[in-house]
Design goal:
211 residues, alpha/beta, Rossmann fold, five-stranded parallel beta sheet, two-stranded antiparallel sheet, 6 helices, 9 strands, 21% strand, globular, P-loop_NTPase, ATP binding, ATPase_AAA-3, CbbQ/NirQ/NorQ/GpvN
């Protein structure tokens, strides 16, 4: 299941998760690399200067690199090491949208990418985009979902768009996926094949910070 609630109508005649329509905040920062570097500097100041996340310097640095290089990050670590907090803080500081998907064995691809819904009153179909359409996506325990769901997400990561009902919807920019795996669970999991793991720029082993 996903954490996103109802998807109100967005711009362009289709639905966007969380009620966010397309806006300048979803586009790349002005000035290309310089603008993005300024955003990263601001983010780094919030994370370090205000001590929102403590003891996870490598995690913060790799997220910054992933944002700059348009790469995705695979995190492996036990619960409670600030993975969710880090992604939420990124979204808040940069000004983008944040979405969280809890991967489970009964998940299907339409749960994450969206589907077409028939509106009986208007006698027509609407496209409802799934929670994957966000600037910052936290994919919790990606290895708990079946291979077809993993492939659906990884295809979006590679192509940076979703295709529903013959229409293509581009992902917002920036688009950063952080997927997590729990290394202590071995039952009911579907390990990522090597070819799928290659879609991630980094794999980070997130440990418990030292006192």
């Amino acid at each position: 299941m996903t954490s996103a609630g109802g998807f109100p109508a967005g711009a362009g005649g289709y639905q966007t998760p969380g009620g966010h329509s397309r806006s300048p905040a979803h586009e790349a920062p002005p000035g290309g690399a310089e603008g993005l570097a300024a955003e990263v500097h601001t983010l780094d100041g919030h994370l370090r200067g205000q001590r929102i996340i403590v003891g996870q310097d490598q995690l913060v640095e790799r997220m910054l690199v992933g944002l700059l290089s348009k790469g995705h990050v695979l995190l492996e670590g036990v619960p409670g090491v600030a993975k969710s907090l880090a992604v939420e803080t990124f979204a808040r500081v940069v000004g983008g949208t944040f979405s969280r998907i809890q991967f489970t064995p009964d998940l299907v691809p339409t749960d994450i990418i969206g589907t077409r819904i028939y509106r009986q009153g208007r006698e027509e179909f609407d496209t409802e985009l799934g929670p994957v359409v966000a600037n910052f996506l936290l994919a919790v325990e990606i290895n708990r979902a079946p291979a077809k769901v993993q492939s659906a997400l990884l295809e979006v990561m590679q192509e940076r768009h979703v295709s529903i009902g013959g229409r293509t919807f581009p992902m917002p920019s920036p688009f950063l996926v952080m997927a997590t795996q729990n290394p202590i669970e071995h039952e009911g999991v579907y390990p990522l094949p090597e070819a799928q793991r290659d879609r991630f720029l980094f794999k980070i082993n997130v440990g418990i910070p030292s006192p």
